[in-house]
Amino acid sequence: MCLIARHLEARGLPTLCLGSAHDILAAGRPPRSVFVDYPLGHSAGRPLCRDDQRAVLGAALRGFEAIVQPGRILTLDRRWPGDGDWKAAAVNPGRGDTRQPRDTTPRYQTEEARRLAEAAAGTQPLD
Amino acid sequence: MSDDSPVQYMEAINKRYAALGYRPYRWYEAASPPACQALARPVSESRLGVLVTAGTYVAGQVAYFYKDDTSTRAIPKDTPADQLRFAHITENYLEDARRDPNCIFPIEALRAAEAHGEIGELAPELLSCMGGIYSQRRVHDELIPRVEAHFASQQVDLALLIPM
After folding, report:
1. B50: which chain A residues are within 8 Å (Cβ-Cβ)?
2. Which among A24, A30, A98 has the least Cβ separation from residue B9?
């Protein structure tokens, strides 16, 4: 995403990255970032928590105007609930990131999503 | 680890790849400072474009695949959140997004920000793709032109980018 942000910005479009991996943002140096110290997959807030989601987005939107130094990463002043155990779990080799084998088969979330997409494309169901 | 220090994901993922016998993921590390454009107008008067790299699609659209998928999906801004689906190489990060897509694809918060005048307008179509692409060349040659063309067609003033 940092590569995309830098490219768009260089072409004249102001960007802001709202991300939860501080080290990846720091290495990629996008023009503006807001860092949300939540587990990956929650860059836009806690699930089923409208107030938190509104607050996170609000901070991101304010970041467009607040950040004037290129590459600046603002840290959102919110903590994930609990005692912070999620951080140890995130780097535990037995948990955390579980990347899947790479191939070119579409991975539908549900069989219903597969049927809908195939119906929309007018294709026969796949075996 | 202190509770306040950010998780070191790059190191953790490098170790995982090595343990699995995968080729190392080539993290993008910028060698120069980024450009930083001045905003043409205040955020409250701007049209906002959005890109989320969580492999988001709408029920009825084709899902993503796991091997260097550089395709994008345009997601109409009035799409009900419960019609959003996900396919991403790091499936484990999507458990909550599948209960509430808004935690990674904040479509309801974006509509609220538009309704409350925090942004001038939300682009008619939001955009998603899948991250985790091994080839930076393919990001450059395939994904970036699609993203750029989308934002141009939507005539956005600003782009909010949400990596997963």
Report:
1. none
2. A24
Residues of B in contact with A28 (CB under 8 A): 27-30
pLDDT band of residue A127 (cuts 50, 70, 90) is very low
* Assigned domain for B5 exists: no
Residue B36 forms part of a structural domain: no
**B27 within some domain:** no
Give, for B138, the enclosing helix (H) or strand (E): helix B136-138
Position B1 scores a pLDDT of 46
Its pTM stands at 0.92
Note whether residue B97 is domain-resident: yes
Alpha helices in A1-127 (DSSP H): 2-10, 22-28, 50-66, 85-90, 111-121
Q: Is A62 in contact with B164 (Cβ distance < 8 A)?
A: no
CB atoms within 10 A of CB B31: 5
Domain membership of residue B152 as a residue range? 41-163
Domain count, chain B: 1
The residue among B78, B109, B122 whose CA lies nearest residue A51 is B109
**Dist. CA B3–CA A37, nearest whole Å:** 10
Cα–Cα distance measured from residue B52 to residue B127, given in angstroms and rounded to the nearest whole number:
7
Query: Which amino acid would we find at residue A96?
Result: G
Q: Cβ of B59 and A116 within 8 Å? A: yes
Closest CA to B89 of B8, B30, B22, B147: B22
Which two three-digit tokens encode residue A59? 């901070």
Q: What is the pLDDT along chain B (164 residues), one digit of tens a residue?
A: 456 899 999 998 888 888 888 888 888 899 999 999 999 999 999 999 999 999 999 999 999 998 889 999 999 999 999 999 999 888 888 999 999 999 999 999 999 999 999 999 999 999 999 887 878 899 999 999 999 999 999 999 999 999 98
Contact A16, A33 (CB under 8 A): yes
> What DSSP character marks residue B143?
I
